[in-house]
Design goal:
The chain is α/β, with parallel strands linked by helices. 33% of the residues lie in helices and 10% in strands. The two termini are 31 Å apart.
Length: 409
C-alpha cells in the first residue's frame, strides 16, 4: 500500500504540517427516509437499518436531520446538483461565486500545495448528478474511468515527453492570453447581459490558467509509488465491483497527499442491474410508492452504499499520521445526497452524515425548527463549519452566513 502522510512530505517537519482533507460523496437518489434517520435525537440513538454497517464507527460520525437547501434547491432530480452548493445553477446569477460547491471553495484554499487541488470522480457521467461546480457557475466534468484515475495518481511520466508536454502547456497559456485580449475588447461593445456572460467566461479562463500553472509546476515532481494494482479491465466491472476501487484510490490519494479535496458522485448503477441481485432498475426502485417488494430490492443498493462508506472510513481510521491522529481524524467525510426522498421527488430533509475531521461525533442531531418538522435549517451552515475546519477564515458560504451550532471541534 501507499506510504502514509509523513513529516518529510510537508514543507516543515512538524506535526502542525499535517493537513486537513475533505471528501464529499453524493448519491443521486437519496435514501428511504424511515430506514436512514434514527428515531432518537442525541448520543443514545439506535442505528436504523440503513446505518447498521457503520455500527463499529458510531463515535466517528454524526447523523443529521432537518438540514436542506430550502426553496433554492427544489426541483426533484434536477435539484441534486445543488447538493454541495445550496443553489441551483439557474438561480446563481448575481452571486459573487455563482453556485460554487463546497469542495471547490476548499480547493481554492489548497491552491498549488498538492498535485491536484481537487479530484472530481463519478461512477458514470450523469448530468443530473454533477455535484462539483466552479466559481464561474460551470459544472466540473468528473473522472469516471478508474483506470484513468489510477494513471493520474501513479503513472510515471515518460521523461522523453517532458519537454513536449511543457511546450503544450505554454502554447495553451498563450492562446488564453490572446482570447482574453479579444474578449476584453468585445466587452466594451456589448450590452449588460453579454458583459455578465463575459465576466463568467473570464472566471472560467482564470480557472483554466490556474490548472495549467498547477500542471506545469508539478511536471518535474515524481508521482508517489504504491504497491496497489487495479484488476485487469477494472472499468468494465459491474457497479458493485467497481465502486470499492474508487474508494481504494481515494484513500491512496489522501495518504500520498496527491490531493486534499475529493468528490465522488454515485448515480445510476448501469447495465446488468449493477451486479446486484435485483430485478428492477435503480431509478424504478426509488419510486417505490411504499411497495414492500420495491423497498426490499432498493435496500440491497442502499445498504451497499453505507457498507462501502464504512469500509472507507475504516481504511482512513487505520492510518496513523505524524500529529498522533488518524487519517480519518484529519479528513472530513461528508456522505449523503441532494435528494431527500426520491419516491416523492423531494429535496427536503437531506440524508447527511459527517465523519472524521476532528469534530465531536457520536450523535444524531436534529435541526428542524418546529415540532411538525416542516422548517429545516440551511445545510449551507454545515458547509461553513467544514470550511472553517479546513482552514478558511469565512463566516458565509452560498446563502448561509453562519456555522452550524452544536458541531464543536
Amino acid at each position: 500500500m501507499a506510504l502514509p502522510y509523513l513529516d518529510a512530505m510537508a514543507e516543515t517537519a512538524t506535526v502542525n504540517a499535517v493537513p486537513m482533507r475533505m471528501v464529499c460523496t453524493g448519491l443521486n437518489f437519496g435514501f428511504v427516509p424511515r430506514l436512514f434517520f434514527p428515531e432518537v435525537i442525541g448520543p443514545d440513538y439506535e442505528l436504523p437499518e440503513r446505518l447498521q454497517p457503520l455500527k463499529s464507527l458510531k463515535t466517528d460520525f454524526t447523523v443529521f436531520s432537518g438540514l436542506d437547501h430550502g426553496t433554492e434547491a427544489q426541483g426533484g432530480h434536477g435539484g441534486v446538483h445543488a447538493y454541495l452548493s445550496g443553489v441551483l445553477s439557474k438561480n446563481s446569477k448575481g452571486m459573487p461565486e455563482a453556485n460554487i460547491s463546497v469542495d471547490q471553495k476548499a480547493a481554492q484554499y489548497v491552491g498549488v500545495q498538492t498535485r491536484y487541488p481537487s479530484l472530481q470522480l463519478s461512477s458514470g457521467y450523469d448530468t443530473n448528478n454533477m455535484i462539483s461546480w466552479s466559481a464561474a457557475g460551470v459544472s466540473i466534468p468528473p473522472v469516471t474511468n478508474v483506470e484513468t484515475l489510477y494513471n493520474l495518481l501513479f503513472q510515471r511520466v515518460d521523461p522523453s515527453l517532458r519537454n513536449s508536454t511543457q511546450a503544450k502547456y505554454a502554447a495553451r497559456s498563450s492562446i488564453l492570453d490572446l482570447v482574453r485580449t479579444d474578449a476584453e475588447y468585445l466587452k466594451l461593445r456589448v450590452g449588460a447581459r453579454d458583459r455578465d456572460k463575459l465576466d463568467r467566461y473570464f472566471t472560467s479562463v482564470e480557472e483554466v490558467e490556474k490548472r495549467l500553472t498547477q500542471a506545469s509546476r508539478w511536471l518535474d515532481k515524481p508521482k508517489p509509488t504504491v504497491e496497489y494494482r487495479l484488476r485487469v479491465a477494472a472499468n468494465e466491472l459491474d457497479f458493485v465491483d467497481r465502486v470499492p476501487l474508487y474508494y481504494d484510490l481515494m484513500a491512496l490519494a489522501l495518504q500520498t497527499d496527491s490531493t486534499r479535496v475529493i468528490t465522488l458522485a454515485l448515480g445510476d448503477i448501469g447495465a446488468n442491474y449493477g451486479g446486484f441481485n435485483i430485478s428492477r432498475g435503480y431509478h424504478q426502485l426509488t419510486h417505490h410508492g411504499k411497495v414492500p417488494e420495491y423497498i426490499t430490492e432498493l435496500s440491497v443498493i442502499e445498504q451497499f452504499h453505507t457498507s462501502q462508506l464504512a469500509r472507507f472510513l475504516t481504511q482512513l481510521r487505520q492510518v496513523q499520521e505524524p500529529n498522533g491522529r488518524t487519517l480519518l481524524d484529519n479528513t472530513m467525510v461528508l456522505f449523503g445526497s441532494g435528494m431527500g426522498n426520491a419516491s416523492s421527488h423531494s429535496n427536503r430533509n437531506l440524508p447527511l452524515i459527517l465523519a472524521g475531521g476532528g469534530f465531536r461525533h457520536g450523535e444524531h442531531k436534529s435541526y428542524f425548527k418546529d415540532e411538525e418538522k416542516t422548517k429545516a435549517t440551511p445545510a449551507g451552515k454545515l458547509f461553513v463549519s467544514m470550511l472553517q475546519r479546513f482552514g478558511l477564515e469565512t463566516d458565509c458560504f452560498g446563502l448561509a452566513n453562519s456555522t452550524l451550532t452544536g458541531l464543536e471541534v
